[in-house]
Amino acid sequence: MFRFIHSSDLHLGKRFGQFEGDLPGRLREARYGVIGRLAHHAREQGADTILLAGDTFDTETPAPDVRRQALAAMRDHAPLRWVILPGNHDSLQATQLWSTLTAEAPANVTLAVEPVAIPLGAGVSLFPAPCTTRRPGRDMSEWMDGAPTDEGTLRIGMAHGAIRSFSEEGAASDVIAPDRAARAGLDYLALGDWHGPLTVDARTRYSGTPEPDRFKHGRPGEALLVSLAGRSAPPQVSALPTASFDWRTLDLHLLGGDDPAPAMEALLPAPARRRQTLLQLVATGHGRLSSRTALAEAVARAVPDFAFMELDDSGLVTECEGGDLDLIDRAGALREAAEALLAEAGDDSRSAAEREIARAALARLFTYAQAVAS
Q: Rounded to whole angstroms, how far apart are CA atoms 29 and 46?
């Protein structure tokens, strides 16, 4: 039995410039903390090797503290062995990075910078496919097909890039053959690049990022524990939780008579988890102007509880009747503006996008008027 941890896409040093305040720093520190969490899982599960299948660093020029602190953390978890593969964000094109890493790497860190077999133990060989540039433009794993090993040797591949016409970079070409494991006689192929966990086949998997960095995938961060019992047996793979932050998208569907505040509260995570949660609330359905305002106010009250919270109400259709306009103003310029927006919102000759812009503007005007009145 050979057992190891498969992870990828740590993106150490990621800036998270879309956020404000201390959140970017908290998110960066959480990514650094992944190293310790992976080591904990390895010791707990009896694995002595951790494979990082690309994009350990977010850029080809990580700050010296990002690079050195990562290596120091790995060194502190010796005798666990770390194997780092160049990905598309930290490719071999960054010659300064990899020459510096070579000089600084502790004895328990292996840099998989060449397409040559790396022994991981008696009867176990690793076949890495390092990214030579950000977009190599060819299948860097192809060399594995002809790589010889002694009979009975466990063959593990490690690569970073797209298959099935998907990639985090939006590439449309198939870079890694989906059947590479079968072609090369691999017992397991550890892939990186896709930030959500994904099973390609019984012997080929993306681990996903251990610490999510976007709302796209809708899965908690995890790493994979892989156990290989022999050439004839399929790998045993189980997920290990690794994330300290939770990125969640919640769908709130409203009908005309719904009170949005309790409906939203029923969806939210427990208060104890909110500080570590980044939340995207997507509101759809129908609501009166007063409901839309109540929803915005409920979100504003909840925002301080979360690491981050935002409301997407572009799919919420605002229903408005003439009587609702009296709550804005009964006469004057505000009333005229409200009537014009209401007319545009119901004008079927306009595009759906134009009507929604008018509804949203009317909702903002309603909110403004209510704030002034209070």
A: 26
Q: Under 8 Å CB-to-CB from 190, ≥6 apart: which residues?
A: 6, 8, 51, 53, 156, 157, 158, 159, 205, 207, 224, 226
CB atoms within 10 A of CB 100: 16
User: Considering the entire predicted model, what is its pTM?
Assistant: 0.88
- Final residue before a domain boundary, out of 241, 275, 308: 241
pLDDT in tens, 228-278: 998 889 999 999 999 999 999 999 999 877 899 999 999 999 999 999 999
* CATH assignment at residue 184: 3.60.21.10
170 lies in the same domain as 274: no
CB 261 within 8 A of CB 254: no
Task: Provide the domain count of the chain.
Answer: 2
322-352 pLDDT, tens digit per residue, is 666 766 777 788 888 877 887 887 788 998 8
216 vs 116, 149, 174, CA distance in Å? Answer: 35, 40, 21
CB atoms within 10 A of CB 358: 21
For 215, the domain range is 2-241
